[in-house]
């Protein structure tokens, strides 16, 4: 598995300039620790630190920051979509990222493969309310639609007590179940990414 790379987009509603810590960042970092044990090099960006224009094209012009982020997504072997739950839904920032990936549908090569073909995607979710399974389902469907491969056990989450005030970043230790799940996500994603790197999808003959 050595030589694999993972790139995460933190789709928090908090930009780094606000100097606020992010539970989404912490969960992604905990996943990175599991990846790094398996020889995967990891990097992350907060989506809100970049001017990602609304739209469904790969380049919306006028200072759009998405093309550079898009390239980093596609350069990595594993894409990590990291996001919070708000009102039981994926964050609006995550939805914008997924909308921009809609362009992959029309960017197939001569064998019908989308740009994300052969790339693995996983999703990590934090929130203070129920809804993690729903959010995972929405994200997995979208990522699969635009060509990513979803491994088994590809999602990890933490949700606090309903109407509670404790955030994931406030926990003194990572809960055992979350830690175990992150290890499984990293293990399966790295295994699948290594297989796809050596044996890519053949596509279809035109």
UniProtKB/TrEMBL annotation:
Annotated ranges, domain NADPH-dependent FMN reductase-like: 18-161
Cross-referenced Pfam families: FMN_red
Alphabetized InterPro entries for the sequence: Flavoprotein-like_sf (IPR029039), FMN_Rdtase-like_dom (IPR005025)
Molecular function terms, GO-annotated: oxidoreductase activity
Protein name: Flavodoxin family protein
Species of provenance: Tianweitania sediminis
